[in-house]
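User: Second chain of the day. Same drill as before.
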Amino acid sequence: MYTFLGGIALLIIGYFTYGKFIEKMFGVREERPTPAYVNADGVDYMPMSTPKNSLIQLLNIAGTGPVFGPIMGALYGPVAFIWIVVGCIFAGAVHDYLTGMISIRNKGAHLPELATKFLGKAMKHVVNAFALLLLILVGTVFVSTPASLLHVLTEGKIAIGIIIAAIFIYYILATLLPFDKIIGRLYPYFGAVLLISAVGVGGGLIITGAPIPELSLTNFHPANAPIFPLIFFTITCGALSGFHATQTPMISRTTQKEGQGRKIFYGMMIAEGIIAMIWAAAAMSMFDGYGGLQELLAAGGPGAIVSEVSTTLLGAIGGTLAVLGVVVLPITSGDTAFRSARMIIADYLNIAQKKFSSRLWIALPMFAISVALTQIDFNILWRYFSWANQSTAVIALFVGAMYLYIAKKNYFVALIPGSFMLVMVITYILNAQIGFRMSMTASWIGGFIGSAILLVLFFIAANKARANNLPLEEDVSGWNKVA
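Assistant: Same format as last time:
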């Protein structure tokens, strides 16, 4: 219990200390008008309050990742707590804050545009393809997982095909309609369910005195599976997730002032880390050890763990609400995944999105592809999603590092976690069954050599960009209104 509570305390302290340091280092300018005003279009660009933006941001980034990932990561034992806490404070929250703030400085640009500007034109097509692959995979995965949970919750009385169809209909509407029509109106209610769920499960663990394993030299890692690099692809949301880089630009288009960024971007990642800690602790403590957890995961997957934990801790009614809170997570990330994909395609093709027809013809092919992908084995989809997710995180961190390097600020806050995860990403794909299936030794060698080469290229490009005075932000001097 001490490790669990201490980890949550460190996350909160991290927000008020390291988060404040990152904000000060970046250099907030309150007087600078944000895209919500400069580019207002009544569809994607519009000013919204900090509480609403924060709640939407949390729901956008917190898919099943901070629940299912930590549940599976619990098999690694208390070492999972270390990655959640350290990863969230020094990698994930920095990743989200820099992506959001740099986007605000560049007309609410999405990651492919930012990568093109700061990492070179050659990255434009690569990052667009990566981002779209990730978002469509996310949307597909986040149809399957809530559908399976709802199927279990209704005891199989509603066919899973009907549930999937209903979720797709909601996703289509959320993708096409103006931001404030569905997402802005429904998310406060979804958020309430999410918070009740997380607080209920966390409180239940504390009140019942659940035997949460403590971090120690003898109980550091009870599982036999290798920690590196697999843990970084098992626990993503809640520690570090590139999916967030596709979501934060949506909120950068509705943020009123730059000073709200720490609460919205850094703070909501910390909140997601707390959710991840709660579910990792629950999975570690409630199934008669790691053997019992492994058996239940094999029999029913993470969804079975969610149902069992919720019902045991909160009873039938409270457990149902908790499961609904977990159902909300993927649905409120899947809808914005498709919406973000629609916006990225529109930016790539330079198509204005004010007309409904312009949004429609971009969105429909995406949903057709996603429906086809639901026929593929979920485990295979999840593996590709995990790798694409962390690869996208690396790109976003290097965008942040480049921005800070050109600005002559502390770029190490992004470069260090970015370089670390670059080694993991290359090593994983060289070794994985979905990749090149090389030996672990050869994969590690390839990971370090590949990362070293890319780092050299990064500094060559960074010095060139600094020498050429690459503009860090879009000019808004001609905009005379006060945000």
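Residues 289-349 form the longest helix (61 residues).

User: Great, on to the next one.
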